[in-house]
């Protein structure tokens, strides 16, 4: 009887182990080419480079915090956080950025408070909505690759979750201060 009991628990045990292993890896897939383009801003620390700001450096990035909230931050500020707090843990800004964008690293809340970040909680209803549904319901289509998002009557968590959802679907997010809108562009 004992061997039968062990046999019944083995498949269940293996299933649990498989689920835990599957869940431990990020399901967020950010384009590696984009991560490399953003990480170029760290070349500013090189003495032979006078000044360089990557084209993608002012776009918004979405990262996880240690308090289970999210932040929206630009790459220039994130590079400063990397230099101040994570440079000893990650050989390059690219390595840090790769882990952070895939949410394999949670930034410490106290490390981001002095920066211009938007802190928010993910809205589960928006997260479960497809990118196509978000496009139709919330965004104004400009062309096949560009949308505008006017977040007038939407609460902060929904607003930022919409942008986060588009970001993890390989869209670049920038904010137009003058027009009061977000510009969402498909990354190629």
Can you offer a commentary on this structure?
With 188 residues, this protein is α+β, with helices and mostly antiparallel strands. It is 43% helix and 16% strand. It contains eight helices and seven strands; from the N terminus they run ααββαααβααββαββ. It has a four-stranded antiparallel beta sheet with strand order 4-5-7-6, with helices on one face. Helix 2 (32-39) packs across helix 4. The longest helix is centred in the N-terminal third of the chain and has 23 residues, at 2-24.
Strand content: 15-25%
Q: What is the number of helices? A: 8
Number of strands: 7
- List the uncertain runs: 3-25, 47-51
Kindly state the mean pLDDT as a whole number?
83
Question: What's the SSE blueprint?
Answer:
Blueprint: H1 2-24, H2 32-39, E1 60-64, E2 70-74, H3 75-86, H4 93-101, H5 109-112, E3 118-120, H6 124-127, H7 131-138, E4 140-141, E5 146-149, H8 156-167, E6 171-176, E7 181-186
Antiparallel strand pairs: 1-2, 2-3, 4-5, 5-7, 6-7
Q: Characteristics of this structure?
A:
single chain; 188 residues; alpha+beta; four-stranded antiparallel β-sheet; three-stranded antiparallel β-sheet; 8 helices; 7 strands; 43% helix; globular; disordered N terminus
């Amino acid at each position: 009887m004992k061997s039968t009991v062990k046999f019944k628990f083995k498949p269940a045990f293996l299933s649990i182990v498989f689920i835990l292993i599957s869940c431990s890896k990020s399901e967020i897939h950010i384009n590696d080419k984009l991560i490399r383009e953003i990480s170029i801003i760290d070349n500013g620390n090189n003495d032979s480079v006078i000044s360089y700001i990557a084209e993608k450096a002012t776009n918004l990035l979405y990262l996880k915090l240690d308090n289970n909230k999210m932040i929206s931050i630009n790459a220039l500020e994130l590079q400063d956080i990397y230099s101040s707090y994570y440079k000893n843990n990650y050989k390059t800004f690219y390595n840090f950025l790769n882990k952070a964008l895939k949410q394999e690293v949670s930034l410490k809340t106290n490390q981001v408070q002095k920066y211009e970040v938007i802190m928010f909680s993910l809205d589960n209803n928006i997260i479960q909505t497809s990118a196509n549904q978000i496009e139709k319901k919330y965004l104004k289509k400009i062309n096949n690759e560009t949308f505008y998002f006017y977040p007038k009557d939407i609460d902060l968590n929904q607003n930022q979750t919409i942008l986060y959802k588009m970001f993890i679907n390989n869209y670049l997010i920038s904010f137009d201060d003058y027009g009061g809108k977000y510009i969402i562009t498909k990354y190629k």
